[in-house]
Amino acid sequence: MIIQPPTSNHSESSLPELSALVKMATQLFRELPISPAAISSPTLTSASVPTTLPGTPTLQPLPQSLPHQGLAHSHESVTSAHKNDDALDRLADHALANRLDSHSFYLPGQQALEKLVKELVSTSVSHPLSAGDTSLSVHPQILGYAAKNISGAGFDIHAVRRDFSILAERINGKLLAWLDNVATTQKPQAVIDRLSYFYEHENSNIHRAAHTLAARSTDAYESARQKIAHFIGAGSSDEIVFVRGATEGINLIAQAFGQAFIRQGDEIIVSHLEHHANIVPWQQVAAVKAASLKVIPVDDHGQILLDEFKKLINSKTRIVAISQVSNALGTVVPVAEVIQIAHAAGVRVLVDGAQAVSHMPINVQAMDADFYVFSGHKVFGPTGIGAVYGKLDLLNQLPPWQGGGNMIVDVTFERTIYHNAPARFEAGTGNIADAVGLGAAIDYLQHLGMSSIASYEHSLLEYGTHQLHSVPGLRLIGTAADKAGVLSFVIDGLAPEDIGKALNEEGIAVRSGHHCAQPILRRFGLEATVRPSLAFYNTCDEIDRLVDVLRHLSRRRY
């Protein structure tokens, strides 16, 4: 049954109906499995009801003009006592303007919305009624408008998805659900257009010319460097070095730092969570320098053990290299605490931020990282580009990693004088266009707001975790209290590769395998997992599709 709008003019007698409407909305949130996702009804546009994330519950003004359906507002004046009644009335009127099925409505922020609705009822109705018949179906647009008031962030998932044309692709006749974001992220049209514009209007080598295109290209390249510095909270754009990606960045620091500071008998510390890219380069340095590699253990949830880390630090330790977010488990590592412990012992720290920069705000100065690396393609930018942050005085103590043009001040056959950072680490012609594209990706993210992105993704992660628990035989791998964007799992009796293939048949892209993180999977007795991974353009509908396939596969085991 659908709640009908009042047919009479607004009066004291209409308040019970309005309060019942709002209270039944609250009751639905108690009784139904409401959870974060996009509003899937095709009749509801992103302009009419934004699907935003809960933030600080600050009530925004109601629209000045709302569509009417049976409610007439004929007040010449409204007393102070009835102002909230009028606001509630207009909210209900706004909600009832469109006919929608409540089963298609999912909303992040269930608890925050309940709180808001309760406040509306308690401040607006002097004689609140019971919720009544909970079998009634409430038009969800009232909840959508309340969600806007809760979040205030303006995060519009429908508009966001329209920015990524690849999400309209069909795979095996099914709409693509891209849940392989740890491996790489898709690119918004703004990035694609910026790359095209560069090649159409700015293409030139940088720095060493007097002509107009060289100036344009140089400006675009250095502007991207400045954007990255601002994005991660660096103190200066001179602290940003362009590289091909996080892997090259780690290799750069491992080789340069190792050459300058690591000696025979010294120790390097990594964690059990690391991607191979943050293990192998340090093994190579250790082998050359006759140093040793120590490993921070993790608990059964996949979080590092800080007490054990403290025991590893000693006078021989030269550097700690650690991921901010595990690519295999999604564990968010307390890197600020790691850095504080290391610095207390005079030890430098490199943070691998490849899986963090797309999920949360980053401030390298606040965390006090000595080095920080990330890849552009993991943050909605082009492939083949990334960045290294290093404290400027430290970078200038490191020897160049590669030699060639651009990184020199003067060259003779007897000696070479090198530039200071960042140029000393950017030998030859760099990936100019993709650096500019990375700058465009950062512009896009900052327009959305990293805090809004983090909140939305957290809601998706909670929903996905809850839904996956409903699949018989499924075991989540990595259950730390603080996670970001990763839902690794195995299902009893089913090979991860076979699960991945079955999901692909339904248009769902996930990663199956060891994820270039064999040590951490073996810590859990595994050689492979299935790894759906989330980004801000994903929805609960996509998670539901994933879970439907997994339930079907699980049932087939018996």
Quick take:
The protein is of the alpha/beta class and 558 residues long. It has helices at residues 15-31, 83-95, 110-124, 141-151, 157-162, 189-201, 212-232, 246-261, 280-289, 306-312, 335-344, 364-367, 392-395, 432-448, 450-468, 496-505, 518-523, 540-555, and strands at 170-171, 174-175, 177-178, 240-243, 267-271, 292-296, 317-323, 348-352, 371-375, 386-390, 408-411, 416-418, 474-476, 489-491, 508-509, 511-513, 529-531.
Estimated helix fraction: 25-40%
CA-based shape: globular
Based on CA atoms alone, the radius of gyration comes out at 27 Å
Whole-number mean pLDDT: 81
Structural class: alpha/beta
How would you describe the oligomerization state of the chains in this entry?
Answer: single chain
Task: Report the sheet-strand fraction.
Answer: 5-15%
Main β-sheet, in a few words? 7 strands, mixed
Total of helices = 18
List how many beta strands DSSP finds. 17
Strand order of the largest sheet: 4-10-9-8-7-5-6
Distance between the termini: 39 Å
Spans where pLDDT lies below 50 across 5 or more residues: 1-24, 26-85, 87-112, 120-153
